[in-house]
Amino acid sequence: MPTEPMPDFPAGFRWGVSTSAYQIEGAVGVDGRGSSIWDTFAHSPGRIVDGSTGDVACDHYHRHAEDVDLMAGLGVCAYRFSIAWPRVQPGGTGAANPAGLDFYDRLVDDLLARDIDPVATLFHWDLPQPLEDAGGWLNRDTAHRFAEYADLTAARLGDRVKLWITLNEPFVHMSLGHGMGVHAPGRMLLFDAFPVAHHQLLGHGLAVGALRARSTSPVAIANNYSPVRLAGDTDADRAAAAAYEALHNRLFTDPLLGRGYPAGQDFDAGVVRDGDLAVIAAPIDVLGVNYYNPTAVRAPEEGSPLPFDLVPLDGYPRTAFDWPVAPDGLRDLLGWLRDTYRDDLPPIEITEGGCAYDDAPDGTGRVPDPERIAYLDGHLRAVRAALDDGVDVRGYFVWSLLDNWEWAEGFTKRFGLVHVDFDTQVRTPKSSYAWLRDLIAASRRAPAA
């Protein structure tokens, strides 16, 4: 357990938790919900480590009141959730499904009744299957369908959602879903996946306009970032590190902030039309930063299809996902964003940060998870240090409130502050839940920092 007291955070710092629709809601096919690419992918043999699906997941669709009670008990002031596009528009086009919007209407009202800000993400990877059948994000038309979906959703919820997030981790959706095929929709295009990047960003820009027409709340995007660590000292190693940084960190940030796509990279720009970059650069109010770990990079082996090799980052403890626990990487990343984008950089919120461990109830029914407490303690201290360095960070959302269905890993990885027995759906707060609850309470009592 940490022994040093946590430094105070600024008054108004937003303490939150995050989830996503497909990972927790369940209720597949209920109340008119359509099929998503993750339904298709999860039901394809061999795609998911344990053969499970998100058909039930945490059954949040039916248990959301219990989960809001857990958030209120934790003391968070914000909940970042995602809205399932297939629940709102089962076919990805046309009129909204009233029953789908009714669910989110209830959720938003329940949150507000407990003084918890609703933070809604419009796309957390669950594209309606009919849109995928028409080409998915490889098809420019999907960007326009996304803007229509944003309009329908904001028309219903725009008076109460406190922060809109258009896309979650477009880099991950492009790279794992379309480049390497390990996530839905399972395409293996490598660098031919660039249209997916551009059309997601175009959809973001179009959605910003749709949201602003319906809501006065701020608008953001949540990008996944990984600071690059050089694993070598040759010019080739440095070139490889620059190529990876351009792909992972700059491809989805430079154009958002009005700088166009990174120069000197072999991105296929043939899909970029006149006016697209201006749409993509529609001003945002917040940059969401999802951080899990740095990436070590060196020059590729001869004949490699990629311009870099990714290698293990030594010298750090590891999570159950075998990711390095590197709080210093978060401070480095926040400084890199400040130094790279300067006056173009909007305020930052850490929209995801968390860790997977093999948590289980002990003989008393409690769920001790000291590794998660240490993880959160270290990363929150890194945020506090970045604030001292002059980075404008407004909040931190823990991934995740609940143990959930972890994409291609199924139920084998537990990220939650709350343990979920997936057979009984019993929720048990872990020791990290109590630790964070006490930290948030102390932070709210502390004088402004």
Automatic annotation (TrEMBL):
It comes from Micromonospora echinaurantiaca. Gene3D superfamilies: Glycosidases. The keyword Kinase does not apply. It catalyses: Hydrolysis of terminal, non-reducing beta-D-glucosyl residues with release of beta-D-glucose. InterPro entries: GH, GH_1_N_CS, Glyco_hydro_1, Glyco_hydro_1_beta-glucosidase. Keywords: Carbohydrate metabolism, Cellulose degradation, Glycosidase, Hydrolase, Polysaccharide degradation. One of its GO terms (biological process) is cellulose catabolic process. NCBIfam families: BGL. Belongs to the glycosyl hydrolase 1 family. Its EC number is 3.2.1.21. SUPFAM superfamilies: (Trans)glycosidases (SSF51445). This is Beta-glucosidase. The lineage of its organism: Bacteria, Bacillati, Actinomycetota, Actinomycetes, Micromonosporales. Substrate binds at residues 23, 124, 168, 292, 399, 406-407. GO terms for molecular function: beta-glucosidase activity. Pfam families: Glyco_hydro_1.
